[in-house]
Input
Amino acid sequence: MSLSPPSEAQFDALREVTNVGCGHAANALSKLVGGRTVRIDVPRVVLTEPTSIPELLGGPENTVVSTSLEILGELQGRLLLVLLQPEASRLALELLPRPRHSLVDAELRALEEAGNIVACACLNAIAAFTGLRLLPSTPSISKASAEKVIELAVHGLEQDAGIMVLEARFSTCSAPMLCGQLLVLPRRDSVQVLLEKLGV
Output
């Protein structure tokens, strides 16, 4: 099945779904960082080649920490919470407040659980908004280049006609500043299911 470029109405509907999901994810993150306000930028919906996705993360060579989980149920794909390494270290310090010079196992496990909480909040909101049944897999965390993280994320997804990326950036509105990104990579047939459910 080929993935045709969405119409403007379809882009708008997908952005709205992303906005709903990421809004709830931001609320979940806010609770993890002591109630500080988390701002979400206007979501983007991009149909692109897998090799171009790392550019959304600042470039293929950037070292990032990514919590990734599979989306199961009536929609399928992958969801990622991605932080640049310095941002991941700052979040880990808030979750486990003691001085560290590098990310070690305890911090990575805490970041993995935080990513799981944020990702599940996103999926639950999308499920409530669309009426579709969505289930998260067990999360996994990796620290690698953006190129490697995306390579692992798109493994098993159809890639020959491009991949749909639903992306939103978030940041805290007070110090210490934290910034990151949420990426939803739905499978090709799931894009069609989602658009049909949205009536566009």
In short: The chain has one domain: 8-198.
